[in-house]
Write a structure and sequence with these properties.
Elements: E1 5-10, H1 12-16, H2 19-33, E2 42-46, E3 52-56, H3 60-63, H4 65-71, E4 74-76, E5 85-88, H5 93-97
Amino acid sequence: MTMQWHHLALGPGEISAGISTAIQDAFTALFRSAGGPRTMALFRKAAGEGGVDLYFTPECEQHAWRLLQEYGATPCAPPPLAGLELLVGHNEITYYLTT
């Protein structure tokens, strides 16, 4: 089974309810407990009408599967790098994404 990117769209109501922050906090804890894998990362991209799109790198399947399932993240193609903001992960992750 090949691992793939996952996507989660959050609307303005979910953001104001703190769901985005809860996901980021839970992801940070999983990232740390996994030893900070180089290719495990969480990205955010602004979406229409005040929402955000969250993107999880393929490595997240190995270390954050329950989190992906809990919030209903769905498999997706790798997102375009333009406009992506790294929330959790190593700064050099963009190097790995472009090679």
